[in-house]
Amino acid sequence: MMRNLLILAIFALFLSNCGDSAKEVIYAAPAEYQPLKIGAWYIYDVDSITYNDFTTPVTVDTIQFQLKEEITDTFTDQAGKLNFRLERSKRFYSDSIPYNDLKWKLTDIWKIAQKGESIERIEENNRYVSLVNPVKNDVFWDGNAFNSTESREYAYQKVAEPFENFGNTVTVNQLLEDEVKIIYQLYEEVYAKDIGMINRIRIDVESQDLSDATIVVLDRIEKGTQYFQKINSYYIP
């Protein structure tokens, strides 16, 4: 009797393990975090800060504007790849005129392409691999694989985690460098599921002042730029 019960227990455990191994983990595809639809638009609030060390004290120039990115059309490139036309327009902050009363000025035409399951952005004729498959934590790839600049490792972080008012997002870390209290660089993008890019940070600053190395570079910047692009509103058809 005990022997039969033992056999049944082992058999049940075997079936349970088989069931677990048969379960396939399905990860989100890049297109879920960057939908490509004609008519979709995004408006961002942008702060662009420049530090100039040619003066004493350091000159700090801040420009505030709104950036609109709109997918307006599609076309097929010479490689037979489907591209989406991305029209970029700006309107600059004014103390006296609300943003909504200012006219948009077309400044750039970029492109977004889908190659297999990857999403690529063509910015100023440079092609960057923004998202790859699968969308899961600690997946690494070369974001500069298809342009002439130096190789740069991108990585997924905080997959399916909330970001401010968005419940399901993914962070793409494109660069993080903190070298001996002299330079600080952070390039990062955040994408929300079924929406697209909602946040972009570009920080590239330095300080040669080591009189108090306990002060982080960001609090004693002498040279460089900081760029913060945050979603204001959007429309996905």
Which key phrases capture this entry?
237 residues; mainly beta; twelve-stranded antiparallel beta sheet; 2 helices; 11% helix
3D structure, described in words:
- By secondary structure, the chain is mainly beta.
- It has helices spanning 2-22, 30-33, and strands at 41-52, 59-76, 82-92, 105-115, 118-123, 126-131, 140-142, 153-163, 166-179, 183-192, 196-206, 223-235.
- The protein has one domain.
- The chain contains two helices and twelve strands, in the order ααββββββββββββ.
- Strands 6-5-4-3-2-1-12-11-10-9-8-7 form a twelve-stranded antiparallel beta sheet.
- The model is unreliable at 5-11 (pLDDT under 50).
How do the helices and strands line up, and which of them pair or pack?
Blueprint: H1 2-22, H2 30-33, E1 41-52, E2 59-76, E3 82-92, E4 105-115, E5 118-123, E6 126-131, E7 140-142, E8 153-163, E9 166-179, E10 183-192, E11 196-206, E12 223-235
Antiparallel strand pairs: 1-2, 1-12, 2-3, 3-4, 4-5, 5-6, 7-8, 8-9, 9-10, 10-11, 11-12
Work out the strand percent: over 45%
The span between the termini is 66 Å
- Count of DSSP E strands? 12
Radius of gyration: 24 Å
Give a short synopsis of this structure.
This protein is mainly beta. It has helices at residues 2-22, 30-33, and strands at 41-52, 59-76, 82-92, 105-115, 118-123, 126-131, 140-142, 153-163, 166-179, 183-192, 196-206, 223-235. The protein has one domain.
